[in-house]
Amino acid sequence: MAGRFVTYKKLLLAVFVVAFILIACAQIASWNHPIPTNPGGIQPNTATASMAVVPSATHPEVVFITPTPDPPKALPTLRADPENYVVQRGDNLDRIARQYSISVYAIALANDLVNPNLIEVGQVLLIPPPDPDASAPAFKIIPDSELVFGPSTVNFDIAGFIQDQGGYLANYSEIVDDVLVNGAQIVERIAREYSVNPRLLLSLLEYQSGWVTQEYPQEETLLYPMRVFDAWRTGLFRQLSWAANNLNRGYYLWQVNSLPILSLADGLVVPMEATVNAGTAGVQYFFSLLNGRQDWERAISEQGLAATFIDFFGNPFSMAVEPLVPDDLHQPPMQLPFEDGEVWSFTGGPHGGWGDGSGWAALDFAPPGEPRGCVLSSSWVVAVADGLVIRSENGAVVQDLSGDGYEQTGWTVLYLHVDSHNRVKSGTYLQAGDRIGHPSCEGGVSSGTHLHIARRYNGEWIPADQSVPFIMDGWASNGYRVEYNGTLVRDGQIVEALNGRFPANAIQR
Model pTM? Predict the structure, then answer.
């Protein structure tokens, strides 16, 4: 009888804990020039495949092939032994679980906690190790080039594809930044700003809500088409923005070995499989934020998003561009983005290129002057290199340095928070030092007048704190592994990133 009582008690505990956990910027640029058949001189990878992945059950004629093998990531070693933790003032079980990369449920079960909300200062908790058999699947969903807004997207007609599908999205519109825009314009804007592949966005939208093919999708998705049920994120624009930002977060965290585990929406913790690629990690991360274990495993399987993608576009690995970013990539020569003789302030070290999920590709500079806040500056932002302006709207200017007129290929530079007054127009060819516009708060999110500048190569944000430092006039960027912190270094001189105007962060050409 005693044994049955303990079993029954643990069953009730498990049910209770699971229940607790469950409760618990721009108009679209128009592209009037012809599309080249070989943009940037880059062709999809057609080399002999070296790694076969799981055949699709829903599409038996398709075998997923990775064009090149992905060497295992050197992920942090997970604990193999249990540990004891003494509860501190201000602790809660969720915080402790995150600290140890384990679920609330696992801690509650190991300590017979009838109510996970009731823990006391000084209480000793047994922290079990993560379950090594619960690792994420090794199935590869997409190549990296199908997550970023890169070379494979140049020939893709977003508006035409949406109209051909005839679903709810084809007739959708909403007001963004006081302008009425349609569904295709929203998808294109999100793809360009976050640099996320529109084919992936459309496949996710279809998988989550059926908006692309269904004329009358489920009512609950009309405000929340990505099923991100957040009152602050209603409408397609905000839902897609959230999706793109978190796809980027998973993608770039994986690249720097900073995504050892996934915390699923039901509180379960899953160790990552070290052999997947960054594109797959980005998709796995996205779905982990929205789903419990069963729905998450289905979404990232061959019957999930992968099947939707194939239905729309065919095998994603047949479109792979590899390597997307060469190992020997070097930045072309660049100068500082302001005029000779002016003293600007280096106010932001490496941080997100667009949103806080993208790689830390950006640096911030504030113009001279005493006023704080959002005041239009009389100083000029200037081009860091020679190149064609291919986008100029809502505070953003994008310059193509590769010479083919596309922001999906080669090197591009983003200048953000450039005021519309006297801003350079799209189609203008600039030489290094030519004027672009005045720094302001326009576009994106800003609490004070400054310039945000970032780099991409083949659509991938290039971090300013990694192997390809942002170098301007010989000043090379460095990071401290803390967002916005960092330095610029040249010939032994160091300029520190500081929020404000100080002698220590002053810099001039």
Answer: 0.83
